[in-house]
UniProtKB/TrEMBL annotation:
Keyword Cell division (UniProt): no
Entry keyword set: Transferase
Residue ranges constituting the N-acetyltransferase domain according to the UniProt record: 1-151
Source organism of this protein record: Flavobacterium bomense
Extent of the signal sequence: none
SUPFAM superfamilies recorded: Acyl-CoA N-acyltransferases (Nat) (SSF55729)
Pfam families the UniProt entry points to: Acetyltransf_1 (PF00583)
Coiled coil start-end: none
Official protein name in the record: GNAT family N-acetyltransferase
Domain of life, per lineage: Bacteria
GO molecular function: acyltransferase activity, transferring groups other than amino-acyl groups
Gene3D superfamilies membership: 3.40.630.30
Length: 205
């Protein structure tokens, strides 16, 4: 395979629909919540050079985009997806590392954050130097949290006044020490335990 990871150009707009479908199908198969995006939204990110795409000789292999909040004070990487044909190859980590470095160059003063329920994403973030934090340390921009409305867990987030959900908040502050080696090693057992506790608390019938 000859997979290239690049910043999106106009020639990549045609992949917008496939990207949205792949993201949504992946969420359904995992049974996890996800904020849905339209092809038009994805294309807008591509136009603004806030998106990264992975291609294998023209075939869509993976994608991720950048969102900025509070006038560039915070940025987040969203929509990270790898096509089923290219999973278990370490591509997600390569895409995440690429978009991470790219966002630090484009938004050098911004804190980089994310919320996720995926252990694989948490592991990648931890390796890059993110640390788990309460939601209060993330952006206060309501437009970010509004984007969670299409997530299946939104009612939990809403009931907790945007302060807690099944997702884990993670943050990288560029003003701290360099990302290597990671300061906050990821522990799968602890993360699984915390996730189980959250589910027991929030998903009570």
């Amino acid at each position: 395979m000859n997979i290239s990871i690049i910043t999106t150009q106009e020639e990549h707009y045609k992949y917008s629909q496939e990207i949205c479908e792949t993201i949504e199908l992946s969420a359904l198969l995992r049974g996890t919540g996800i904020a849905k995006r339209t092809p038009e939204y994805i294309q807008k990110k591509m136009e603004n050079k806030d998106a990264i795409i992975a291609l294998d000789n023209g075939k869509f292999a993976g994608f991720c985009y950048i969102e900025s909040w509070q006038h560039g004070k915070f940025v987040a990487h969203s929509g990270l997806i790898v096509h089923p044909d290219y999973r278990n190859l370490g591509l997600a980590k390569k895409i995440k590392s690429f978009v991470f470095d790219y966002s630090l160059k484009k938004y050098p003063e911004a804190k980089v954050f994310g919320i996720t329920t995926g252990l694989a994403v948490m592991k990648i973030n931890s390796d890059l130097g993110y640390k788990p934090v309460p939601f209060s340390e993330l952006t206060s921009d309501q437009s970010f949290w509004k984007g969670c409305q299409t997530c299946t867990n939104y009612e939990i987030l809403k009931s907790k006044d945007n302060k807690m959900c099944l997702c884990t908040g993670m943050l990288y502050d560029p003003k701290e020490k360099p990302k290597d080696p990671p300061k906050h090693p990821f522990n799968v057992k602890i993360s699984n335990r915390l996730k189980s506790i959250k589910e027991a608390l929030f998903l009570k019938k």
